[in-house]
Each structure stands twice: as structure tokens, then as C-alpha cells.
Write a structure and sequence with these properties.
By secondary structure, the protein is mostly beta strands. Helix content is 11%, strand content 46%. Strands 1, 2, 3, 4, 5, 6, 7, 8, 9, 10, 11 and 12 form a twelve-stranded mixed β-sheet that branches. The protein is elongated and about 70 Å long.
Length: 214
């Protein structure tokens, strides 16, 4: 029997976040400024003279370039909706996260597996950082799976999650043992929230920590 290809779309609410190292001088100059959002906006030609900056080492990059320590985006586990479409573009099934996780036919431990976690208070090493977060809604993930047998089996859906600052986010999607690749997204982003952080003591120091869904 010829395999049937199904398209799985995930809609919902999630975040994108990044953390990058900065110098103490940059941290001290900008940490209380009212112009951080303007200075890190890639679409703005910010006039640094208005804040008294004349040297390049105090100028800020676009916010999303601060991600050498942490780069993360994920779909909130408790807020998504999936739609499964067949080759004829007809809707096969649709369900929200509560319906799927509450389905007695799915073993909850198998359906969702937490693979990592991140907390700024414990995972950032000593130093100075710029941290940013923005929220996103609408289409987060589109994946395809070719199935030999007839019918899409919702019980085969598996999600890998990350605990990011206390909330669970989907970062990987599997159908059985096959990981699905995200081929399309359409996210409407909010303006980022940006802050400077000084860490004086730490028990762990991550670098290059990265999980991305979309």
C-alpha cells in the first residue's frame, strides 16, 4: 500500500528568548536606561548622541544577536491546538492540548517527555548579560509524516519539552520514533522585553544552551 502523507500543524502561544554576555561597562551604562528597546531595535536608526554615547563599545546590537549563552523558542505545552490534514487537504482531526493530554488512550509519560530545563537564577555563570524575551502567537510548527497503514494515529504523537523558567514548552515533535521537521511557521511576535543582568555568584554556568522549535 502506498504511504499516505499527513500534515500536522501546531497553533498556540509561545516565547522566543536569548541571553548574551556584555561588558560591565555596557551593563552599568544601559541597565537603567529608558532607550534600550530603541537602541536594540533592528528597524530603528537610533541616535546614540541623545544618550551621550560616542564610542562603539557602548553601542548595542539588535536584540536577537544576544544569544551566545542562551537561545530558546518553544510552544507553551498547555496552550496549543493541532490540526491534522490529509493529502486531499481535508481535515482529519483537530484537538487542543487539554484534549490530547487528557485522552485515556495515551500514556501521559510517553506523550510528553521533559528533556532539559533552564533557570536564570541557577544556570547563568558569574558575569554581565543582556536578556530578552518576546511572545508569539499563531502557527508555530508544520510537519509531515508518511504512514504506511491507513489512518493517522493520535496515540503515536510524542512531544519533547523544556522547562524554561518554570513553564513547559514544546521543542520537538515526534510521530512514533520519527522526529518531524518544521517546514512552515507564521508567528506574530510581540515587542521584546529586554533587561540587563548582573550575576555575582553561581553554581552552574551554561554557554551555548539552545533549544528551538520553529
Amino acid at each position: 500500500m502506498k504511504p499516505t502523507t499527513f500534515t500536522i500543524k501546531f497553533y498556540g502561544h509561545g516565547i522566543q528568548a536569548g541571553i548574551g554576555k556584555v561588558t560591565k561597562k555596557t551593563h552599568d551604562f544601559w541597565k537603567d536606561s529608558d532607550h534600550i528597546l530603541e537602541a536594540t531595535d533592528p528597524n530603528e536608526a537610533f541616535d546614540y548622541a541623545t544618550v551621550g554615547v560616542s564610542t562603539a563599545n557602548l553601542k548595542l546590537k539588535p536584540f536577537w544577536e544576544y544569544d551566545d549563552i542562551v537561545r530558546f523558542d518553544g510552544l507553551l505545552l498547555d496552550s496549543f491546538r493541532i490540526e491534522v490534514v490529509g493529502e486531499d487537504t481535508q481535515l482529519v482531526t483537530a484537538a487542543d492540548s487539554d484534549q490530547i493530554q487528557g485522552n485515556d488512550a495515551i500514556d501521559g509519560e510517553d506523550f510528553v517527555e521533559e528533556i532539559d530545563e533552564f533557570y536564570r537564577d541557577s544556570d547563568l555563570g558569574q558575569g554581565f548579560y543582556l536578556a530578552w524575551t518576546r511572545e508569539g502567537d499563531q502557527l508555530w510548527f508544520t510537519g509531515e509524516i508518511a504512514i504506511d497503514r491507513v489512518g493517522f494515529d493520535l496515540q503515536q504523537l510524542r512531544l519533547k519539552t523544556v522547562d524554561y523558567e518554570g513553564d513547559a514548552y514544546v521543542v520537538q515533535v515526534f510521530y512514533g520514533d520519527a522526529q518531524l521537521v518544521n517546514t512552515e511557521s507564521g508567528i506574530r511576535w510581540s515587542k521584546p522585553e529586554i533587561e540587563f543582568i548582573a550575576v555575582k555568584q553561581s553554581t552552574r554556568s551554561v554557554s551555548g544552551w539552545k533549544h528551538e522549535l520553529y
